[in-house]
Structures are given as C-alpha cells and as structure tokens.
Amino acid sequence: MIYIKNEKEIKQMEEACHIVALCHIAIGENIKVGMSTMDLENIVMEVLKKNNAKPSFKGQLGFEGSMPYPYASCISINDEIIHGMPDKNRIIQDGDIVSVDIGAYKNGFHGDSAKTYMVGNISQEARRLVKVTRDSFYEGIKYAKVGNRISDISHAIQEYVEKNGFNVIKEFQGHGVGRQLHEDPGIPNYGHPGRGNRLEVGMTLAIEPMVNQGTDEIIIMDDGWKVVTKDGKLSSHYEHTILITNNEPKLLTNRI
User: Fold this and answer.
1) How many CB atoms lie within 10 A of CB 229?
2) pLDDT for the residue 15
3) Distances (CA, A) of 190 to 90, 127, 159, 165, 199
4) Separation CA 19–CA 26 (nearest Å)
5) What Å distances lie between residue 66 and 61, 73, 85, 154, CA to CA?
6) Residue 83's pLDDT is what?
7) How many CB atoms lie within 10 A of CB 170?
8) 173 to each of 49, 120, 154, 198, 230, how far by Cα in Å?
9) Which of the two ends of the chain, N or C, has the fewest CB atoms closer than 10 A to its terminal CB?
10) How would you classify the pairing of strands 227-229 and 218-220?
C-alpha cells in the first residue's frame, strides 16, 4: 500500500529529512584519511542526539538469519556497495571512495539519504563513477512528476548509467519512505518505462542509484548485511528522499 502524506505529515517528515542532511554536512566537514568508519558513525550519532532524533537503521532486519542492524549509519568503502558496518579498525585510506547512508527518525517519520565521499587523491575513473552515480539520480527525478510511472524514473537512471559505461545494481532498489523506513512502492534502478504505479502528489520516495564500475554481479557477505561487487571493482551510492508535488519534485534531504 502506498501512503500519501498530507500537508501536516509532510512538515513533520521534513524535520527528519533536515536532520539527515545535517548529518551529511557534518560528515563532509570531517571525513579525512586516517579516520575509522566508527569515527563517522560517532559523528552521525552526535548530530542525531543533538537534534533529538533516533537512528532509523538501528534494529532494522536484514536477510534471514542476520542480526538486527546495530548502527546509525551504513559505511561502505570502494568495492562495498551498501550496508557496510562501522568498525573502529576500518581506517579510511588516501584515494578511498566512502559511501555513507543515513536515516533519521523524528515526529513519527523517517528521512533517508546517502552520498559517496571522495577522500584524498582520487583516480579519475573513481571520480567519474561518483559523478555519474549522482547525475543519474538527477536524470531519474526529471520523471518524478504527477502522472508518470515509477519505472519512468528507473529507466532514466539505468539508461544514463549504462550510457556512461557503468552498471546499476538490480538486487536492491529505492523505496517509499515515511512512517516506516521502507514503504511501498519499490523503485528499481532499471527497467522499461511506463510501468508500475502512477506518481501522485504527496508520495515521498527514496530514490537511490547504486552503480558499479564493473559487473553488476554482487556478493552478500556472511554477516548477512554487507554487499560487495563480485569483481572487486568500485561501487558508488547516491540517495535523496523526495516529495512528489504538483510541479517539480522537492528534495527533502537536499543539503548534500
């Protein structure tokens, strides 16, 4: 079931989304070579606490048999696609690309966004991957308008990514977001246009391209959470929570 938010609910949700954006601002200001991924987790928790918000991801269930997710952020480096767990022993190196995914819960609503940060001296190909991932999001939301269908967004993302020589992940997708972190509809990053639900005013959606430098094949690690590229090549992630309006979509987590 797709939940359409009214004006009051949207205002409540905007605060959670704003807090996610503040978390990303803090990450961007502090991330550097030599930090651990747990240092980044601590930054996120500090911002959440300061703003009286709870971490959306903590306690979420993963694949069958995996433990509930124990952290506020997912931090994935280089060939890690999504769901990397913060670790005091995982040290950020010069030239790493670091994907940080954050959710905040406040006023009964969630906000969700992700960004891949480039740390130190980045290769040109890594830089291009990160840029194409980000740009594919904006290509996709050109179609996030009333009357279009979900797969119009999906198709635009895939087309742009593949035109630039990269591949989208097919096993994971964007999603509705609101009172629950993951709501209907699912939003793949690939597919034919003209399919799926029609977009309506009041829909709130987390659009999140996950893009691989090489093959789109993945490996899910033994912890049941971390997902890596099968060929060991780089992956990038970019996500915003958006609102469908009568005009252009509104980016609710738009300070990154």
Assistant:
1) 22
2) 97
3) 32, 23, 8, 15, 17
4) 11
5) 7, 17, 13, 29
6) 97
7) 15
8) 29, 29, 9, 18, 18
9) N
10) antiparallel
What is each CA distance from 69 to 21, 48, 87, 180, in whole angstroms? 21, 17, 13, 16
Within 13 A of 101's CA, how many CA atoms are on the CB side?
28
Of 106, 81, 119, 95, nearest in space to 239 by CA: 81
> pLDDT value at position 181?
97
The crossing angle, in degrees rounded to 10, of helices 150-163 and 124-140 is 160
Average pLDDT along the chain, 256 residues, taken 10 residues at a time? 96 97 98 98 98 97 84 98 98 98 98 98 98 98 98 98 98 97 97 96 98 97 95 98 97 83
Which residues are 118's β-sheet partners?
97
* CA dist., res. 171 & res. 37, Å (int): 25
> What domains are defined for the chain?
7-251 (3.90.230.10)
What's the rounded Cα separation, in Å, for the pair 129 and 73? Answer: 22
Which pLDDT does position 38 carry in this prediction? 98
Listed residue (132, 44, 40) closest to 90, CA to CA: 40
Give the residue from 33, 208, 29, 5 showing the smallest Cα distance to 103: 208
> Is the torsion defined by CA of 216, 130, 251, 158 positive or negative?
negative
Burial letters 34-48, b for 16+ CB under 10 A, else e: ebbbbbbbebbbebb
